[in-house]
Specification:
The complex is a heterodimer of chains A (about 450) and B (about 400). Helix content of chain A is about 20%, strand content about 25%. With about 450 residues, chain A is α+β, with helices and mostly antiparallel strands. A 6-stranded mixed beta sheet of chain A has the order 12-17-13-16-14-15, with helices on both faces. A 4-stranded mixed beta sheet of chain A has the order 2-11-10-9. A 4-stranded antiparallel beta sheet of chain A has the order 5-6-8-7, with helices on one face. The radius of gyration of chain A is 24 Å and the shape is globular. Chain B is mainly β. Chain B is built from 5 helices and 31 strands. In chain B, the strands form 9 sheets. In chain B, strands 1, 2, 3, 4 and 5 form a 5-stranded mixed beta sheet that branches. In chain B, a hairpin with an 8-residue loop joins β7 and β8. Classes of the chains: A alpha+beta (about 450), B mainly beta (about 400). β1 of chain A pairs antiparallel with β25 of chain B.
Chain lengths: ~450, ~400
């Protein structure tokens, strides 16, 4: 006799299906959609996650690209694009990428892209950071998901690969049309950068539909537009003349430093450590330069060399303000300094050759542990010095102010490039898990 | 002849005779044209005695056997055992057998009480809910399920986090971990996960076509879905995300950060013939079969579309209002009208609450109760009836599991 099957006795699946809201934010779900508008006193012409000197990348690299690993605020390294932590196979440390990763432009991302990205990053901004790495990194001909790194401790490798300066980019990446696995797809241009949700995002598409970042001529431009209600984010403040009604402050740490660099034409002022003394002579803390203040500033001097130019990248409105202030504060009669805007390429050439007296530049925070900042600054001074510092970090107290550690560099810290300002009430800018900067993908706007 | 024993019920005031007669009538109907049923309940001894006496009276002529039903209502479930008994035909067979023969066939079925069965029992009235709390749960629970997974006639509770699926016991104020299955071993990471994950757990109880119950689990962090057996062993990997549909599940795919609009049979491809067309994308979904007092059954689905609660059933759609991210649907008082349990669409956990409302047949919504949950509701599930009174809801909040009834 068969089992009774009348409907009253039918199996009754008790259905429970639930969506979970982020514990950080809401018991409804975080809203999906909306557009964020802002303007920044930085060039929006290009974005290169591997560029140590790119301020736009300092702020938005995580919006477009991801490293293979990441490090949270407690220092724990965890896999993001990688499938698990690095492991040793046949005497080599290998990293396996997650299957099925695709860039915003639809390119498959695998071991070859990781190997290419690491090589490119080592030739660019991560030259010092990747100093401990074996010179050759290559993909595996038999397994397209694997990249091989020679002999290196797996934990150390994961830490090195967690720097945003070593983001995984598709082979052939171009900073004028940046492609990556991040929550957004970027379209930079001289007037603005548009970030549009990336449906292929390897760590999850953005909550926002779009972020539009206009290139502002200076800091006042952003604050004026925010105060007038044109923008959702006020960069570095809540308004120009008065605070915008209903706006809230946000502050997510420093993502870069603005530095003063001395070159071959600085003469005696080009000696190691002098750049920091000159930088200390600029009272950044009392001037409205949009820089985060340094702590424990010691000493300071003026320029006593020949009249000279202070070069800066003219595409960055904020650097114009800083350069003019530096020139003004360090000049003395007969030893005048003049701020001079040059193109990005010209500044890079001058710096590579040392063919300048003074220059203002931006150096990105590399993350990568307590020695990371000094390695990045050393790399920004000279790549070879960065590699030496990365391979064998000096025995310093890394909990002291960074401006005390630049005594061996021809570079001095003027102040931090902080991520702070004001937002309208309907916007929540999510903090990056590293504790530094904004998680643009997790940020949202309620209706 | 189909005859039922008297009803054994832990619910007082049952219209026992009417219910047993109805059960006997339905079983006789299923057995075919030759079967009849008796209106009055009788014990097995009475039946065997009567059959023996008839057999003697008829001599060698055959006496039909009978099917004896043993209905029982216990802890919110109706259990029916059925035994087919022959009757010994000759004096010799009776003399040699030394007693009456046992049944030649046996069957058993059980199911939670629904509105049709409840119509033979006293109606359940709503009272102020009681909340029992159990601590020691995993933090950040994504989904909960409550149902009889292992067919032992008592409800099981399963929870899911981003790391694992865990069956738990709620005992003496504590959450005890019984079995676990880790996501890292169940499914690879999804190429495109969601930043704010979605998770779904559905217990499908044992029944025709499914001799053992199973648990379908899906999370946006991982590829597809998995089907787990009652021991939380991996039974099947499936494409698509398994979400509740009626008493089972259907599978859909993520679309623009939300659940898609079409449900197909789990195990099928995206372009298979759909089981259901929801016509809306959603970020939360609950579904069940509602049985009316007449016995008519219909599937009712509730989903959350950009904060709005939308119910679908009998081809009709109704927008109820704004709700939070957690949903459950069940006939908690077994009256044939579904209750929808929701949370509140707020930006701060301290303003969150569990709200239970009934969707009346007239189309109105009647609020039943609200329980504040100031630590925020992470996950919510409806349990089957397990005793007299309104069926329980279980919710997860900040390291605790609450049972609300």
């Amino acid at each position: 006799m068969s089992t009774l099957s009348r409907r009253a006795f039918l199996a009754s699946g008790i259905a429970a299906c639930l969506g979970k809201a982020s514990r950080v934010d809401a018991m409804g779900r975080v809203p999906v959609g909306g557009e964020l508008r802002m303007r920044l006193p930085w060039s929006t012409r290009r974005l290169d996650p591997h560029d140590l000197f790119d301020p736009l990348a300092a702020i938005f690299s995580g919006a477009v690209a991801d490293p293979a690993y990441a490090r949270d605020g407690a220092g724990t390294v965890y896999p993001t694009l990688a499938d698990g932590m690095p492991r040793i196979e046949d005497g080599q440390t290998v990293v396996r990428m997650r299957a099925g990763l695709v860039s915003a432009a639809g390119k498959t991302i695998g071991g070859r892209d990781l190997a290419w990205s690491v090589t490119r990053a080592r030739n660019m901004g991560a030259a010092g950071l990747l100093g401990p790495l074996d010179p050759f990194v290559r993909s595996d001909p038999k397994d397209p998901l694997i990249a091989r790194f020679g002999q290196i401790d797996p934990g150390k490798l994961a830490l090195l690969l967690s720097s945003p300066l070593v983001a995984v980019l598709p082979v052939g990446f171009a900073p004028e049309a940046p492609d990556g696995t991040g929550p957004f797809r970027a379209t930079p241009s001289p007037s603005k950068m548009e970030l549009v949700r990336n449906a292929n995002a390897s760590r999850g598409p953005s909550q926002l539909d779009r972020v539009v970042v206009h290139a502002a001529t200076d800091m006042a431009d952003s604050l004026r537009a925010f105060e007038a209600g044109q923008d959702d984010v006020g960069w570095l403040g809540l308004g120009l003349h008065r605070d915008r009604a209903g706006a809230r402050k946000f502050g997510y740490g420093e993502v870069a430093w603005v530095v003063l660099v001395t070159g071959k034409r600085a003469g005696a002022f080009g000696a190691a450590g002098v750049a920091q003394q000159l930088a200390n002579g600029v009272p950044v803390e009392r001037l409205h330069l949009g820089l985060d203040a340094r702590s424990d500033v010691r000493g300071g001097s003026s320029w006593h060399g020949d009249p000279a130019d202070v070069l800066y990248d003219g595409g960055h409105g904020q650097l114009a303000t800083v350069a003019r202030a530096v020139a003004s504060k360090l000049s003395e009669r007969g030893h005048e300094l003049t701020a001079r805007a040059v193109s990005t390429e010209a500044l890079r050439r001058a710096r590579d050759r040392g063919d300048f007296s003074l220059a203002i530049d931006v150096v990105r925070h590399p993350h990568g542990g307590p020695t990371g900042p000094l390695i990045a600054l050393a790399t920004a001074d000279k790549k070879a010095l960065g590699r030496d510092t990365g391979s064998k970090p000096p025995n310093l107290r890394y909990d002291q102010p960074l401006s005390h550690a630049t005594t061996m560099l021809q570079l001095g810290i003027l102040g931090g490039l902080g991520v702070h300002g004001g937002v309208v009430a309907s916007v929540l800018l999510a903090p990056d898990r590293s504790g530094r900067g904004v998680d643009w993908g997790g940020s949202y706007k309620s209706a | 002849m189909v005859v039922s024993a008297p009803l054994d019920s832990d619910v007082a005031g049952a219209a026992a005779a009417r219910l047993t007669r109805k059960i006997a009538q339905l079983v006789a109907g299923r057995l075919g044209s030759g079967a009849r049923f008796e209106s009055e309940p009788r014990t097995l001894d009475e039946l065997l005695g009567a059959a023996a006496k008839k057999s003697e009276e008829r001599g060698r002529r055959s006496v039909p056997g009978f099917v004896h039903l043993t209905p029982k209502i216990e802890r919110g479930r109706l259990h029916v055992a059925a035994d087919a008994h022959p009757v010994r035909r000759t004096v010799w067979s009776r003399a040699l057998s030394r007693g009456e023969p046992g049944p030649v066939a046996h069957a058993f079925a059980q199911a939670p009480i629904d509105a049709e069965v409840r119509s033979y029992l006293p109606a359940i009235s709503w009272a102020e809910p009681t909340v029992t709390k159990f601590d020691g749960a995993d933090p950040d629970v994504l989904a909960l399920a409550c149902g009889d997974l292992d067919a032992d006639a008592s409800p099981d509770v399963v929870l899911m986090t981003r790391q694992r699926v865990l069956s738990i016991r709620l005992k003496d104020g504590k959450v005890e971990r019984a079995r676990e299955a880790r996501w890292a071993e169940l499914a690879p990471v999804a190429p495109v996960p969601l930043r704010q994950p979605l998770g779904f757990l559905t217990i499908v109880e044992a029944g025709p076509g499914a001799p053992r119950g199973y648990l379908d689990a899906a999370i946006s962090d991982r590829m597809g879905s998995v089907r787990l057996d009652p021991e939380l062993g991996l039974a099947l990997r499936m494409q698509g995300k398994a979400v509740p549909l009626g008493r089972g599940t259907g599978c859909t795919w993520m679309s623009e950060l939300r659940l898609g609009e079409r449900l197909v049979a789990c195990g099928s491809a995206l372009d298979a013939v759909p089981l259901a067309e929801l016509t809306r994308k959603s970020d939360a979904i609950a579904s069940t079969v509602i049985v009316e007092p007449t016995g008519r059954a219909r599937t009712v689905t509730a989903l959350r579309d950009q904060g709005a609660l939308v119910t679908r059933g009998d081809g009709e759609e109704k927008i109820v209002g704004r709700v939070g991210a957690q949903l459950a649907i069940a006939d908690l008082d077994q009256d044939g009208a579904p209750e929808i349990a929701t949370t509140v669409d707020v930006l701060s956990p301290k303003h969150d609450a569990l709200e239970v409302r009934t969707l009346m047949a007239t189309g109105t919504v009647q609020r039943r109760y609200r329980v504040a949950v100031p630590t925020g509701v992470e996950a919510l599930a409806a349990c089957p009836p397990d005793a007299g009174g309104v069926a329980a809801l279980v919710l997860a909040t900040h390291g605790e599991v609450w049972v609300v009834r």
